[in-house]
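assembly run, all chains below
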Amino acid sequence: MSDVVDEVQAGPADDGASAGGRRRIAPVIVGAIAVVMVGLFIVLAGADASRKESAASPLIGRPAPEATGTLGDGTSFDLSRRKGSWVVLNFFDPTCIPCIQEHPELVAFSEDQATLGADGAELYSVVTKGKQSEIERFFADNGGDWPAIYSKADEFPVAFGVSQVPETWIVDPSGVVQLRLISKVTAAQLNAILQQFREQYG
Amino acid sequence: MLAAASANSALGRAGLLLMLAASVFGAIAVLYGIRRKDARLLKQGPVYAFLALGGIVLAVVMMQRALVTRDFSMAYIQQVGSADTPLLYNIAAMWSALEGSILLWALMLGVFTAAVAWRFRDRTDDVLVGWALIVMFVISAFFAMLSFGPADPFGAGAAGVTSGPGPNPLLQNHILVLFHPPILYLGYVGFSVPFAFAMAALITGRLGEGWLMETRRWALFAWAFLTIGILLGGWWSYEVLGWSGVWAWDPVENASFLPWLTGTAYIHSVLVQERRGMLRVWNLSLLVATFALTILGTFLTRSGVLNSVHAFGDGPVGTWLLVFFGLIVVVSLGLIAWRGDRLRSPGSIDSPLSREGAFLANNVLFTVWAFIILLGTLFPLLVEALQNRQTLVGAPYFDRLSQPIGLVLLFLMGVAPVLPWRKASTELLRNRLFWPAWCGAGALVVAVLVGADGWAPLVAFGLAGFAAGSAGRQLALATRRQGWRGLVGRANGGMIVHIGVIIIAVALASSNSFTHSATLELNQGEVVEWGGHSFELVSVDERTNDRQSRVAANVILDGGSTYRPAITTYLNMGADIGTPSVRTGLTEDVYLTLNQGAAPGDTTVTLRVFIKPMILWLWLGGAIMAVGTLLAAFPGSRRRVAIDPVSAPIAVDGPPSGSGADADADADQVDVDVDDVGTRNEAPV
Amino acid sequence: MASELNAKVKRWPGWVLLVFVIAGFLAVGATRSTGPASQDDRVDAIARRVACPICDGESVFESQNNASQAIRNQVQQLVADNDLSDAEIVAFIETRYGAQVLLVPKASGFDALVWVLPAVAFACGVAALVVVFRRWKREAGGMREPTDDDRALVEAALLAQLDEPDTGR
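ok done. output:
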């Protein structure tokens, strides 16, 4: 039965010119669609889907932003004066749970770096929230003897564009930002990264 | 504790496995049944569909149980659960990350597959239904596989964890997170039904209008859910994100907008095929595009290739989705090419100045719009692939290009409803467009008198009035002739949907053009005037519970109620989230946000204030669209017999006389364009 | 009587009046200005064009974090100084943060494609419409009265249908 209907349907299409026109156009359209789809597929398949724990920042590969803060003892802290050694900045807030969970790793990391002597990186905690007394109590409770940086009006976190703690940044001895790590880090991870950087840096 | 924990994950996995197995076996059984012409096997199809639904429901129930009982032995619960998230947000936590959202997707698929099986349970021996079921089974099997394997939500987590961070803070402070994703997914997944029938039609070669009528209502409902889902997303953004906007042209938002655009084109152009038997390839392509775009959107937002605030991390899921997307495109295009001969439609559209012509213009605009959105969304990937540098294409780009398209579409919405099928004379247009055009002029005059200025919004208001006039004219004529029945049926319900769209267009045009904002410094007890409103700071206080602390400014607005814009800190996250406070009004909203850095007891705060006109009308317009869709899907009782056209003999292979006698008869019956789905099928028999 | 009047009005006087009303009010509304946008509105407009450097594609206007706040403050300062135009302020931000913070692609180089392709797509769409309508016109012109052969075909098809009630294939 369908054969009959087919014949009926084929009727108007047999009309010479138009059918010819269709035959010419259809492959072109199909070809164009195929090319676009293949291109789309290649672009999508090739897209870099990995979101590493290190995050992009326009600051990477550039001199660290100029920002100053004060240390717990009241002395001023200026990042540009720290040139000559690797600086690790950990942005944190003593009430955030990931920060609390991360803290023992930082303690281990700072001990590991201390064994390297002059080659060891300097670790600083940048306070994004909380009064000095709270921070000091936090360190007293959880260990760790590296300095904390306080900044007026969050100058430090703003300069680095840190919005969600914890975040860890690594600045090389010439004052250039090398890496930004979002969320919790481990001592082993930081040690390995720094070792790699030192080798590259020569 | 441990026993219960393993029960959740084991039963959940069992459910997924059941869905996977039922879908695979269902597809095989039906396929075999069709090959062998074995009615008994075919009858089993629905059973498999219900089994699959049972499986996925079991999995979802187990996931919910794990969330509610806070079963921290599961990795997913460790990721999105927390000991102190309230029940409501705990339920919603299921779809707050990748694995759970795939699970939700699978649930919707299970529901739709079972619904199709139930709806057509008496027609299992119809090969069209059989193939449609097979396609649904294949899609279900794919998502069940995804959820069982690469996106496993039931995996065991690290031992000894007794608490988690809870869902993203943004997903736990508004009730809409409970509704927006499921409704949106209903829309996405709903389009798989018409898609499945389209594939079935291609495979069986029954390319007439039968499958179209069959899925007309399914497509309408999918479209309505998509519309509502998108609008709810905008509402959530407005109420929660604190930047005072409803739509940011973020890749994830675009991913939901793309199928909406092609879906909208489809539900219009499908009318031409129903009426005239034309545009078969085109309609099939639009359906394929709509379904493929939902999968592409899922890929874009689940694979991490695009950066978006809503994106859900990365993982192997992306690769699978991309492969599936490729498969859909290749198979559909292949089938269309294979059936090319039969898809050649008879007849022709006589004049661009006709209903058909307007639908075609509509289709060109919607397709170009979808192309633009897709281009803008993918352009950063293209640049990265070809030039290896980072670029962004943001809201201003999409706004600038969408505006002219929106205006032309408004114009079309004014002209199209008065156009008759086949051909219109200028005489007729002059008559019918007269009052709608004056409506447009009236809207323009009112807008100017009220104080609006600028080209774009004024043109938008004028065209909106014009389109509303046309829609109103159609409804007035229809109700005059048919009473309340003049509000139901596709043409009339469609006009109500148009009115909803027009309201939304007006609301968008005014809120985009006439929003004002200011940064106000408020001192306690001092009244500050701005933008015709007064603001007085009473106090800044802090309310803390064990999961969040909220610093809020109590601000008296216009000497009346107190509003509390706040900064909320989620203790588990270490993130500060601004929570806006909005006074909603018929003509304008006052939107208050508190700047970061406020502390309890402060006597001075910095407040951001936005005055945004007409926002309420966005949601009202959405509600009208939903009601209109419902009315459009409402069958006229006179047509009861014709609802089931495929079972009527003629539907096979489509009536050859697509532009036959009845179309001619319809030519002058334009004012009351009743729901005419069935008539044409009955007429030639 | 009334309908006659209605028809008369609709013929040309009503339309001419309509054109005048629209042109008049559009001219008034579009050319007048209700005063310059406030400084904050200007800041917002610029902020929408700049991406937050640390988040995923959000504009500085949307984003709530410190980095965006910092850029917003900078823009506010520049707007308050009133030395630079909007475009110059955006260019200034670009020199500070790099081209990847621009949300509006440039209209030059490869990026111009993102502006050109939509126009091309639209042109293709319109061209396709023109082509199909031409063809349809030609086809309709070539359509003849049904011949006896045609009638016989239809007859046969209908008969075949009656003989063989449809159960699919």
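The CA atoms of residues 75 and 198 of chain A lie 29 Å apart.

Chain A touches chain C through 24 residues (CB under 8 Å).

not gonna interpret more than that til we talk
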